[in-house]
Batch of 3 targets.
Target 1
Amino acid sequence: MTTYLACMGTRPEIIKMAPIYRTLKAQGEDVQVLHTGQHEEVAQALYKFFDMDPDFQIQLRRQSPSLSNLTAELLQGIDGVIDKVKPDVMLVQGDTASALVGAMAGYYHDVPVAHVEAGLRTGQHEPFPEEKNRELIGRLASWHFPPTPQAADNLRREGIAAQQIFEVGNTVIDAALWVKTQMDQDGASDALPADVRRFMQDHAASRLMLVTAHRRENWGRPIQLIASAVGVLLRLHPELVVVWPLHPNPSVRADIQNAFSVLGAECRQRLCLTDPLEYPALISLLAHAHFCLTDSGGIQEEASAFKCPVLITRDSTERQELVDAGGAALVGTDPHRIVEQASALLNDPWAYRAMQVQESPFGDGHSAQRIADVLTCARSTH
Ligand code: UDP
């Protein structure tokens, strides 16, 4: 039996690691879960939902908000857990500080690192520091699991040996399809919190735009611009309703709420500002949404599994595949561009259909099994 240490700390890492955890466990492997505490507010509900109780939790003190402080605390915490578990393989996902430091700590202990969702690149400074985190993990890992041919090409261009690269799709699609199947069996509306459920019942015949904005570079003025574009869209399109789960940061929430203070009563009742949604609720809305307006990487990927067009409120994306396939458009935070593109999706059925990709470029729901197969085979020949 192989002992894996799966190191994770943020919402997207937990969601994208869960299918691998479940698959390896089902095969009888020993998978120890290390929660780094990076996203404490939403993490515990996700662990519970995926039946993936952390075996170890780091208590971050965060004496300063700096990345160096976070990195130092994580390194010390992860180091101690590796000493205890003595894993055969370290599993990290994506581009967070938890993933980079997990890979570093594994490397320092001479534990081979498997990097899930490897090879995504914008080729630019943004997203900072995630772009560089992901690249650095590429220097440390022994197994690289890029989700797409483009991501695999990026790794080959950076000199990673071909026999270490395994293009497997993205486990986010495994998770999304699994949750959707569960909800189809159990009743999807049960997943929604009471305020959103009522809102959706009151507007059952309307067209839903799901909005999220969490990226730090969009805080402040950019988020106010996004909110003002949403206000214009509500005025222009009486058939439109908007659900926007707000980021927990109080100043981000205040910016958004202020931007809507000038909205007339009729438009206001077609807008639902709510708390961050639990994962099944988010998937339930995404599966029903006419389209979404988001800066989230994970939502770009999940939307493609439900043929839901995406307007991306960024200037570049490390998930260009969906843009190339026609399922997403980069609209930045300029209200004119947002209003123009969203109005096309609402007014023009051809434009809408052209943005409904038939097949997700990010995976088919079987990525975790492919990853488990590669790792099991590598360990059995070890
Ligand atoms: N998500 C969620 N509730 C929300 C917003 C997002 O469960 O209110 C999920 C979403 O389904 C996706 C993940 O969080 O799987 C994306 O995380 P986030 O947007 O924080 O990070 P990113 O993907 O941009 O790294």
Target 2
Amino acid sequence: MAAIKPLIAGNWKMNGSRSNISDFAAIASGYNKTDTGKADAMICPPFTLLAALANHPDAGALAVGAQDCHVAQTGAHTGDISPEMITDCSASAVIVGHSERRADHGESNELIAQKAQASWRAGLMAIICIGETEQQRQNGDTLSVVESQLTGSVPQGATAKNTVIAYEPVWAIGTGLTASVEDVAEVHGHIRQLLVSSFGDEGASMRILYGGSVKLGNAAQLMAVDNVNGALVGGASLKPVDFLGILAAI
Ligand code: 13P
């Protein structure tokens, strides 16, 4: 089995205006000077910046993804964006099922699975997010929660090319807290087992990202854990120096 090429993806969430296009350009410039064969890199800006970044003349190998999509291709869905519209912007991926969407918009595993399928229909790679809350971890339910989210939100047809899994413990997001190396190893190992049993060789080579307060100071340690194939970075992806430093830690 070929080695898995890691992915460092930045999720800008609801941050960024046109003045931040220069930050994207700085990240692109730094990344394109490195050996881009070593790790893939991506920025997921808000929709308002998607076309500008995905068509940026200096993007080079730096990919661009969206943060959510609707299930339908077109129609009467005011305020929503379809996967086909994301492809039309020249973006190549979409995050689905982020815990902030699960919490803010009541998104279910079933809906997230439909969004993943819709994103494949448009030729996008789906970054499917899962992760337990603090309460669920305290109750000792982490592995069962992650298992039911994975089973419920990753549809049949997932391959190493069209799907990336992001494990993001909710209590570690934006809090400065990170899961311990032992906890990350345990959860990622469990996710790998489940992926292999559902998707065989594709599951064995599917990327599993860790997310939750990944920063310069902890990236190298986290990225060295078994079955961690990159990171989904929130806050630190807004600062080019930090994001590039995380990329260099791979
Ligand atoms: P932070 O890196 O800001 O904790 O965010 C993680 C995240 O939610 C990425 O999707």
Target 3
Amino acid sequence: MKLWSKGFEPDKLIEEFTVGRDRELDLRLAKYDVEGSMAHIRMLESIGLLEADELKILLEALEDIKVTAERGEFLIEEGIEDVHSQVELMLTRRLGDVGKKIHSGRSRNDQVLVDLKLFLRDELKNIADHVLALFERLQKLSNEHSAVLMPGYTHLQVAMPSSFGLWFGAYAESLVDDMQLVLAAYNVANQNPLGSAAGYGSSFPLNRRMTTELLNFNNLHFNVVAAQMSRGKTERAVAYAIAALASTLGKMAMDVCLFMCQNFGFISFPDELTTGSSIMPHKKNPDVFEIMRGKCNRLQSVPNEISLLTANLPLGYHRDLQLLKDIIFPATTEICSCLDMCDFMLQNIRVNSDILSESRYDYLFTVEDVNRLALGGMPFRDAYREVGMQVQRGEYSPTKEVHHTHEGSIGNLCNAEISEKMNRVMEMMK
Ligand code: ARG
């Protein structure tokens, strides 16, 4: 039996095709669906559409369903199409006619919107927690290894001295930029769509400010059509944030694979964190970072997928929007698992502290030597030529000293300032 049943049941094949993965994916929305309903019925009572005693028993029943959902025991029964139908069914089973009253002034269209806003708001907070853990790990490693030099490359050619302090710290600061997108998505998600009903509001005198407060939203999506149009836009904002994080993580995973390669030998991991080969007995492969790189590359296609799914939809609700769940739900889980795994692996990273003693890295210091001559009074272009000729004649011998002091350089990482930036963004997610 459907919520929208009016004397006939749809064909089984039609039902299966249209319900899709909702019965499984909607389980993640159950807790939020109940919270949305609680706010909605409190508001209905305040405008006279429910009696106080009806509100009381409905709230008790909803509280029980919420506890079931929080325990992970909420189920969508065979033949029930989504979380919204299941909750209403549970209420009518327990309370009879009172259960049928809760849907006044709302539609599943704004119901699912509110569920998604609440869900994505929580997911973004969860992502932020994972980002913070990785950020702190990277900062710690950067501070610990601030004096350990490594080659810096341009065009993948030996360029200038870099350090593990810079490398780890670079990814930490990069995460701060990604968090700006997480924060933007959070602000988009943190607006109340409830009351937009099917997408055009209701003739009941709904108090939308009241549900906004009850659900702890920062603001309303005032225009009911805009509220409905935020389906897809919100998911896309979240996807951009996830893609930004994935691009940072994916790049780092690539660096790790490269630096673990024997030709570099800059870093290593304990044996038990590497993987083997079925034929080559010596192998200790970086599969974790390869899988991470692959997953992060895939995650960067999520905004595109969402754009294509929603590209030619005119305003208003369309069932296509249901498929957004198939795309964004796994993405939020995947990014957290990658952030987690990266943190776990970095906890065990081993750094080679004697990389630059090899002569193949001597040229890293040419600029350092040019600058030394220039500081001694020689015009820069002459100093450049002087060192260039030494290299050309095969006579160059580096002094192997680095004197970087400006902000953000090897000798002055400014990690405290970077932490400060991160704290400011994190603070705004509260
Ligand atoms: N499962 C649906 C979705 O996610 C719920 C809303 C259904 N609304 C409708 N008009 N058929 O979009």
